[in-house]
Amino acid sequence: MRSGLITAAVPARDGWRLRALSTVSWPDGRQTVVTLWTSDLGDFARCFDYFDATLRQVGGTCKRSGSGF
Fold first, then answer.
1. Are 6 and 61 in contact (CB under 8 A)?
2. What is the pTM of this model?
3. For residue 32, what are the contacts with CB-CB under 8 A and spacing of at least 6?
4. pLDDT for 12-68, tens place per residue?
5. How many angstroms separate the CA atoms of 19 and 64, rounded?
6. Any residues with CB less than 8 A from the CB of 24 and at least 6 apart, and which?
7. Could you give the CA distance from residue 45 to residue 17 in angstroms, rounded to a whole number?
């Protein structure tokens, strides 16, 4: 995982509650994990974590309602 990458680990580490999780697979073995989170302040976040065919994380992003991460 690259340094400074915003992934689902950020809201998990910060105490957000996981509300939903889904995966998307491609025929070549790549995977995307989509997670939805809520904070104690009522903010929502949606995270996309991308993995290659060997399940190494190759990217990620989270978008949050409110002020952002």
1. yes
2. 0.80
3. 23, 24, 48, 49, 50, 51
4. 999 999 999 999 999 999 999 999 999 998 899 999 999 999 999 999 999 888 655
5. 14
6. 31, 32, 34
7. 10
